[in-house]
Amino acid sequence: MSEWDMVHRFISDITNLLKQHQIYISIGLCLSIFFSVNLSLTQSKLYILSSFLPLILLLLIASKMAIISLFITLPLLILHIYSFKKFISVILLSLFSLLILIFSLPNIKARFNHLTEVKTWSPPQGDWHLNINSTNMRIGIWYCAAKIIKNNPLYGVGNINKQSSLEECYKGYNTTAYDDFQYNSHNQYLESLLAAGIPCLISFLSLISYLIYISIKEKNLLLLSINLFFSLEFIVENIFEHQIGCFFWGFGIILSMKKINDTSLEN
User: What does the UniProt keyword field contain (predicted)?
Assistant: First the structure.
């Protein structure tokens, strides 16, 4: 067994022990990193040490969107320290570091490699074990979700009927990929449209926009960072479909709104 096989075995054991999907473990790790970095900026720099273990575990788990979202939004916490030009430099450095991780760590490289394959950007075809990955699975799901929404744009199909509507659409694919599990829409924005149509999506986007407005008005960079982090995660996951997702979102938003944790835009 190679070293990386042992790593994958370790991560599998962790997810089985916690009985949670990798994405939710990754979100929890990202929140830990956000709060550790914020405390290191507002209180003691020693708090940065508490972010190392969550970061290492996150890289081992190699959840693509969680890693991308973290590297995009985490630099916002230091916006008050640098000028705008230096801040842009930090963003670019963060993205460059992400590229280095993608090409240097085998487990992360393997997760990102299939994004370059043509088969990735069309719905899956054939047997579950052949030519199928997590991305083209989502492409097939989003095709179905968009098709259902197109036919029911105003009020959706209802919370009760959304899953059965998706599963009926999956039967149109020449694949066994969707046979073993009930796959939801894997997109919180599409989920809003499926469940209750355009009014629901407008309400959901209004909540996100209000949190962004409050974070800017109160100069709360932690709230801004975490809100934007979840906004990106909503693109690939139904965070509110599971209780742990609702908990992490509420936990992150509520704690970041506390004045004691605020990171000011002003010195």
Answer: Membrane, Transmembrane, Transmembrane helix
Taking Cα atoms as reference points, which of 134, 118, 137, 121 lies closest to residue 175? 137
- Scanning the chain, the segments in alpha helix (DSSP H) are 3-18, 22-42, 52-61, 64-73, 84-104, 106-113, 134-151, 162-170, 188-217, 221-233, 243-256
Averaged pLDDT for residues 129-155: 86
Query: How far is the C-alpha of 247 from the C-alpha of 83, rounded, in Å?
Result: 35
Instruction: Compare 91 and 205 and report the one with higher pLDDT.
Output: 205
Residues 152 and 161 sit within 8 Å (Cβ to Cβ)? no
Question: pLDDT tens for residues 145-175?
Answer: 999 999 999 999 999 999 999 999 999 888 8
**What does the chain come to in residues?**
267
* Partners of residue 175 on adjacent β-strands: 126
